[in-house]
Amino acid sequence: MSLKKTNAARFLDTLKLPYTMSSYAVDEEDLSATHAAASLGVDAACVFKTLVARDDAKRILVACIPAAEEIDLKALAKVANAKRCELVAVKELLGLTGYIRGGCSPLAMKKQYATFIDESIHQHEKIYVSAGLRGVQLCLSPSVLIEASKAVCEPLIKL
Question: Which of 38, 59, 95, 137 has its Cβ near the most Cβ atoms within 10 Å?
Answer without folding.
Answer: 137
